[in-house]
Amino acid sequence: MVRELTISLDGMGGDIGPSVIVAGAEIAHVRHPEIRFILFGDEAKLRAELEKSPRVADASTIVHTDVAISMDDKPSQALRRGRKTSSMWQAIDAVRDGRAQAAVSAGNTGALMAMAKVILKTLPNVERPALTAVIPTMRSESVLLDVGATIGPDEKQLVQFAVMGQAYARILFGMERPSVGLLNVGEEEMKGTESVKAAAQILRASDLPIRFHGFVEGDDIAKGTVDVVVTDGFTGNISLKTIEGTVRLLVSYLRDAMSRTIFTKIGYFFAQTAFTMLRARLDPNEHNGALFLGLNGLVVKSHGGADAAGIASAIDLAVDVASAGLVDRIAADIHLLGDVTSGAASEKSPAQEEAV
Amino acid sequence: MVRELTISLDGMGGDIGPSVIVAGAEIAHVRHPEIRFILFGDEAKLRAELEKSPRVADASTIVHTDVAISMDDKPSQALRRGRKTSSMWQAIDAVRDGRAQAAVSAGNTGALMAMAKVILKTLPNVERPALTAVIPTMRSESVLLDVGATIGPDEKQLVQFAVMGQAYARILFGMERPSVGLLNVGEEEMKGTESVKAAAQILRASDLPIRFHGFVEGDDIAKGTVDVVVTDGFTGNISLKTIEGTVRLLVSYLRDAMSRTIFTKIGYFFAQTAFTMLRARLDPNEHNGALFLGLNGLVVKSHGGADAAGIASAIDLAVDVASAGLVDRIAADIHLLGDVTSGAASEKSPAQEEAV
């Protein structure tokens, strides 16, 4: 890494708060000893935690904030109550004014998205931001976006998501040209919603720097058919949560089946390492960190229930995308879009609005 | 059962064709010795199979057809090529004219849906049909609809799906008042697409015979939070295939983990019955049979790759819903809707069209 990186941390976000945020920062700092933190939150609580983490204490500046956004605050409430005063707001604001290169928060998603949009604004040529998730697949991992930032995007916005997603995958997977698929109900051209069909036409016709695979279906997500799966925030959010629910169901079935007889219990005893490995592969903390794309700055959303290892994963992600200059890369790629989609100017659907 | 039931079978549908259809009918007939079949397809091929299944031979009438719809035929092709002449068309037509009480086909979904709509038409007050799936959950099973028949339904059509889904669940699960949820990106009232929000308003305000739970999220499908999950065909199709893909991914991870060391292999040996049980619970043949709802007659779609046990499950389903008089029950419940949704008359969106 060439320059010093500073990550701003919302010290009050998440189900647990300061203790797990500081412990996560400790793990991340061992892996990235060159980074610095700005910790926003209740100073007394943060100082108490830093006494257990001298590494983080040395690498951090504390900025006291009075307000903590709760996990149940509605985005509008959070904006009213937490504007300027909250740890979440100030962590994002540090990215806006250049004190930090990325913000990490385990706080509530709707509030974080609303604040990030207000503070950072979208990049030129980006109409709406997207929230990303990284999904384990048969091949390795894929990026899924949007998972809930924008409900009812039109074709231009879907194309913007494709451009943003491939820029992210290039950095995340270290690939030259990740493949991109549009999520649909079939692979044939005539299938799907109007916006999905029109987006595919733009992507097929354009000479954007995108390896466009075409349509993919729901089962292609886990297959890893493409590196980047593009969809609207409604379908993406439901798909992501459907995956989470299905994993939990299968783990519960398996636990049930393994405790059924004395033989299966013996089997469980011998196969413990296999189950530990399976658990590690499915551990949401391993894949923790959802990135908002399309904003004028980097904000990583950690799972609210993440443990220290999970927070560390989210910080790692922030370090990776910040040091690779993701925002500049997206801005450069999106710039090419100006010409591509201007021909297909379509009015915003009246049904379109945001999830927050 | 009070009256004799006849099931019409598309003898040529599916990846395998006559052999598995007849073998499946044999299994189903052991469980329902009172039912009769009309078998549509190539007479020579069907006769050869019936020699191995005297039970089915005794209970069946063969009707020779020259045309078999292929699994790759587009719906429009199938309608042109197979109108009146194909085994698929004639199996459905037998339901229209009362020779059979339900049709079962393992043929291609798009073609089956297109033909079923042309031949049977939708019930009064039903604008669009829905395709259902039955999903294993933490509690037991739930009905998910629509899984691909109607892309972009408006709020009235979503309400019709809710009514149809609960009528189906009442029969399938033997419940008085199954609970119904609308799939969304959050539980709060202000979240989601316009049509989902408007459908929730209608369902909350109405005195329809529906136990409306409110919004559910993607992970609620596997949790079994409600008995009936209602969504549009785009999201439903993608959710269903996302579940299938995730199950396959986890089974592959598990296989991988269990063959890693000598200990895990010993564990696998002892725990075999657990894995057999797990496999049975996840076996798509156990849950085989997707029903088209909202038509003037019953058509069950079997998975194209189903084995004999899978075909038998699909026939069982046809027998259950036919003997319970599902079409009449839906017609009666939907009749109540006329008043409920007429106030909220909304024009059909121009983007709306069908998946086929």
Give structural notes:
Two copies of one chain form a homodimer. Chain A is an alpha/beta fold and 356 residues long. Chain A folds into two domains: 115 residues, Isopropylmalate Dehydrogenase (3-Layer(aba) Sandwich); 178 residues, 3-Layer(aba) Sandwich (Isopropylmalate Dehydrogenase), CATH 3.40.718.10. Helix content of chain A is 49%, strand content 16%. In chain A, the strands form two sheets. An eleven-stranded mixed beta sheet of chain A has the order 3-2-1-4-12-11-5-6-10-8-9, with helices on both faces. A two-stranded antiparallel sheet of chain A has the order 7-13. In chain A, a hairpin with a 5-residue loop joins strand 11 and strand 12. In chain A, helix 4 crosses helix 6, helix 5 packs parallel to helix 6 and helix 7 packs antiparallel against helix 14. The longest helix of chain A has 26 residues. Chain A is globular. The C terminus of chain A is likely disordered.
